[in-house]
Write a structure and sequence with these properties.
Blueprint: H1 3-19, H2 21-43, H3 49-68, H4 73-100, H5 113-138, H6 148-176, H7 222-238, H8 244-249, H9 269-273, E1 285-288, E2 292-304, E3 314-324
Antiparallel strand pairs: 1-2, 2-3
């Protein structure tokens, strides 16, 4: 490719980015996460990883509304709900890691800048894809009147917000109870700053308990279920102004990946005794005799062109799995 063609291509790319609210948000998202990675790698810390993620949600929601140039009621509410979610979750996660001193997801990561970069980049993708319906909504100039889907979506968001907040608080209090903590003798020690990468393996009888009370009696991860509800509700409201092809653009939005905690469940006998219902086990189970659990699982925000009205689509794919345990 000749120099004039390259210059023309770069100029066209620049014009597209500067003229597209969604594209500008994507660039800002990557810039924020990569700047966060540079600081985190320099100080070998993960303490502000989740806080940076939540803060980016809030910042991009407001920037998209400013850059979009419209200020309709739906956009104000949507941006406000994203802000409320980010403030609560970001504050909770930041206070938790300050209390714990470390996040075991990063035990083999903080010393490796390359791997750390991947984590921060993945967070940028997660932020953008999850927030995409809101970014597209805030880019829309049309002021479509509020309708049933908006009110239903906001109600679903409210239920999800309450579910996640209650579940987080219940687990926080449970883990702070000495009776539920890891019981160690002189032969074992907690993970400390001096041994950040050491993989400690405790005997089964020394493992901490896994919460199975409150909302956690009905779902292995009710906090994730609450989060799915929140982003599903925001998607539903945003869909009021979307056109057909836009559904495919934000099809993977609103599902937060189940973190490394699930990969470590086998090492905790408390979790092992909690019914193994697969990746979708964040959704409530219906307990039946002989430990047969019916799980409404794997709710993926992947729009199918199945109408909920003549010109719109339904966003939910619900797969049910039946699990039998001894």
């Amino acid at each position: 490719m000749s120099s004039p063609q390259t210059a023309e291509l770069l100029s066209g790319l620049h014009d597209w980015i500067m003229g597209s609210t969604v594209a500008k948000c994507a660039v800002a998202d990557l810039g924020i996460q990569w700047a966060g990675w540079a600081l985190a790698a320099a100080f070998k810390t993960e303490k502000f990883y989740d806080l940076a993620g939540s803060g980016t949600f809030i910042l991009l929601a407001h920037l998209s509304r400013i850059w979009g140039g419209a200020n309709h009621t739906r956009q104000k509410v949507q941006t406000g709900l994203v802000t409320a979610w980010g403030l609560r979750l970001g504050t909770f996660l930041f206070l938790r890691i300050l209390k714990d001193g470390h996040d075991r997801r990063f035990n083999n990561v903080r010393e490796s800048p390359g791997t750390f970069f991947v984590y921060w980049t993945v967070q940028a993708v997660w932020v953008f894809m999850t927030l995409l319906p809101t970014l597209m909504l805030n880019s829309e100039k049309r002021n479509v009147p509020l309708g049933a889907r908006d009110y239903i979506g906001w109600t679903v968001w409210g239920l999800g917000f309450a579910t996640e907040a209650i579940a987080d608080q219940q687990k926080w209090l449970f883990k702070r109870d000495p009776d539920n903590a890891v019981s160690l003798n002189s032969s074992y020690k907690f993970l400390t700053a001096e041994t950040p990468n050491e993989q400690l393996s405790f005997p089964a009888h020394l493992q901490g308990k896994f919460i199975q009370s409150g909302l956690w009696a009905y779902s292995r991860h009710p906090n994730y279920f609450g989060e799915i509800l929140q982003w599903s509700g925001l998607w539903l409201s945003a869909s009021s102004v979307m056109k057909g092809p836009q559904y495919l653009s934000c099809g993977v939005a609103a599902v937060r990946l189940v973190p490394a905690e699930l990969r470590q469940r086998d090492s905790n006998p408390g979790k092992a005794s909690h019914e193994e219902v697969g990746i979708g086990s964040s959704l409530p189970r219906i307990h039946q005799k002989h430990s047969c659990s019916l799980a409404v699982a794997k709710v993926l925000i992947f729009p199918l062109f199945v109408s909920i009205c003549p010109t719109q689509t339904a966003p939910f794919v619900i797969l049910c799995t039946i699990n039998f345990t001894k």
